[in-house]
Amino acid sequence: MDGGKTESATMNVNQDEMIEVRDLRKYFPLEKGFLSSLFSREETKFLKAVDGISFDIHPGEILGLAGESGCGKTTTAKTLVGLYAATSGKILFGGQEITELMVQNRKRWARTAQYIFQNPYESLNPRQTVLDAVIEGLRIHRIGNREERIEMAVQALSRVKIMPPSDFFDRFPHQLSGGQRQRISIARALVLNPKLVIADEPVSMLDVSIRAEVINLLKELTEQMHLASLFISHDISLIRYICDRTAIMYLGKIVEIGPTDEIIDHPCHPYTQLLLSAVPVPDPEAGRIRIKLHGDVPNPVDLPPGCRFAPRCERATDACHLYEPEQVQVGKDHFVLCYRI
Amino acid sequence: MLLEVKNLKVYYKTTKGTVQAVDDVSFSLEEGENLGLVGESGCGKTTVVKTILRLFPTNIAHVSGTVEYSGQNILQMTFDELSRIRWKEISMIPQSAMNALDPVYTIEEQILEALQTHDEISYSEALQKIYGLFDLVGLERSRLKDYPHQLSGGMLQRACIVMALVCSPKIILADEPTTALDVVVQDNILQRINELHKKIRASMILSSHDISVIAETCDRVAVMYAGQFMEYASSRKIFGNPFHPYTVGLQQAFPNIKGTKKKLIAIKGYPPNLINPPRGCRFASRCPFRKEACVAKDPPLVEVEPLHLSRCIRSDAIDEIRRRASMEETWERTELS
């Protein structure tokens, strides 16, 4: 699948720092009970959390990864940062394959790929001051001396608009608001000058009135620091505002990928259409046309053959229930996993 | 008028002091009406909802005001009188309802408990009633015999809706009913709530931080901040003609899947400490339009147009406020503590 790779020549980006994911799979074996391990010849069942996805992230762009719970977006993120080892598939950085390297030498990969977690109340060590939290990465990688580290912390905190930085050095997380904590998490990620930043639902636990601050910041930083950013969210309305391109995931597959505005204005995959029709609108006068849904999400362990969305799809034909669909290009940089466009 | 709340104050005791969680809130609920309580964390909306059923934690410090239902003040009822109201007349769908169910009993046992505690009803009659509601919310009847862990989040929420409806109450209190759910399931539930509302004609008070959910389900809306109502009007007026800077700011911070894509503007800062609430307007510290007079005295709720209340003394300047509010620079300022 070639989502987004085609027009690189016109994009004036540094190809050397592009992330390429090819046919990534992450399967989790399900544990059998003791007795069935001994006596049963049943094959191990797998939870196919990520089942063959491909995408690119260019420096300076934010790729959105959207979908509902269980679709595999967090597993994808964790595999990209090396917290999980891919079951199969390739991950390339700057044209070089790093799929195994990133797990074997996760520490080294951490200098390139950083993660911002969802829960600002849990992702900062409550016993670490702001300064300690931000420079910890520098200490682990033995970068700079104390003075230089403080200087880098000042820069990172300034970038995330924690001002003046020195005022915050000695504060502990409990003395900070959720929004401040999240920004410090971002500073901590940035201090190592990563090339890839993965933000996993970075604002869903923040108050609505301050979410904009954090996501605008992420957009700004992506542009300024030429980062390749992956933004994971179940909130498509939010994705609309900061993601240049978006991939919609469903049960371990990317069912649609393309420029965000395209996907939102002209969704092609039946699931994308369903997802978008379900988003509430903050306007009592706006009428919404809802797409009727059949059935519930199938069990990701016992997936039916054919297209995963077929059991709930209005347009499904017999072929859809038998054969997995292939990627179809429907527009510039816009790809859909469906027979029935 | 089905329910009338007047000058409600609810304070909690904590080790750091008394938190004035709800500070002089008044509103009414008509038959067949959906009232939305919109606000962010700590604004007091959950406290308001729970107070209606007199669900207080052990550290309650002060409750005053009246909550009148059918001519009686719920806050002064005897326990017997209260028991007759609870669940039968007024029921609740709690926040994260999926965590509100007991994991060691089946769904059937729990719903039956709700039904049979409050009504003299035979098992077969109860079952018919429950099945009817299951069909209404789109739950498979077979799920009745399952345990909570066997149901998905969306199904559990629907089971809780059934439980809230099973005694045919006149008022349903829904506290963030879809917050923990995926958007497709949320949409499903909201649709059901709207359909149910038409079918069973109960009134509803729905609290949420999600203004889009409120916009789609509520007739009247109260915007809460720091324990008080900042604005109170019909849904159309709140969204189409907001008067309070907080309401205006909230709408600009909120992403919209439709319409022109303007850059989202955050409201910098954070809500005040309610242990010692600041004098004057509680939103003042974050308000780009504040004047001296805003912090000198507590602003009252004033009628800015018929049936539209706003707690802002600068409503005469609303046109200018709205104009300036749409510019990012207006909200651009160093954070205030």
List keywords for this structure.
heterodimer; A: about 350 residues; 14 helices; 12 strands; globular; B: about 325 residues; alpha/beta; four-stranded antiparallel sheet
Walkthrough of the structure:
The complex is a heterodimer of chains A (341) and B (337). By secondary structure, chain A is α/β, with parallel strands linked by helices. Chain A is 33% helix and 22% strand. Chain A has helices spanning 8-11, 34-39, 73-81, 101-104, 106-110, 130-140, 146-159, 165-168, 178-190, 208-224, 236-242, 260-265, 270-277, 318-322, and strands at 19-29, 46-57, 61-66, 88-93, 96-97, 113-116, 196-200, 228-233, 245-250, 253-259, 327-331, 334-337. In chain A, the strands form two sheets. Chain A has an eight-stranded mixed β-sheet with strand order 6-7-8-3-9-10-12-11, sandwiched between helices. In chain A, strands 2-1-4-5 form a four-stranded antiparallel β-sheet, covered by helices on one side. In chain A, a hairpin with a 2-residue loop joins β11 (327-331) and β12 (334-337). In chain A, α6 (130-140) runs parallel beside α9 and α9 packs parallel to α10. Chain A starts with 7 loop residues before the first helix and ends with a strand. The relative contact order of chain A is 0.14. Chain B has 337 residues and is of the alpha/beta class. Chain B has helices at 45-52, 79-85, 107-118, 123-137, 153-165, 183-200, 211-217, 235-240, 245-253, 292-296, 318-325, 328-331; strands spanning 3-14, 17-29, 34-38, 60-69, 72-73, 90-93, 171-175, 203-208, 220-225, 228-234, 302-305, 308-310. An eight-stranded mixed β-sheet of chain B has the order 6-7-8-3-9-10-12-11, sandwiched between helices. In chain B, strands 2-1-4-5 form a four-stranded antiparallel β-sheet, with helices on one face. In chain B, β4 (60-69) and β5 form a beta hairpin. In chain B, α3 (107-118) crosses α4 and α4 packs across α5. The two termini of chain B are 41 Å apart. The mean pLDDT of chain B is 90. The A-B interface holds A 68-69, 163, 177, 179, 207-213, 215-216, 234-238, 240-241, 264, 274-286, 288, 290, 293, 296-297 and B 40-41, 152-155, 182-188, 190-191, 209-213, 215-216, 218, 235-236, 239-240, 249-259, 261, 263-268, 270, 334.
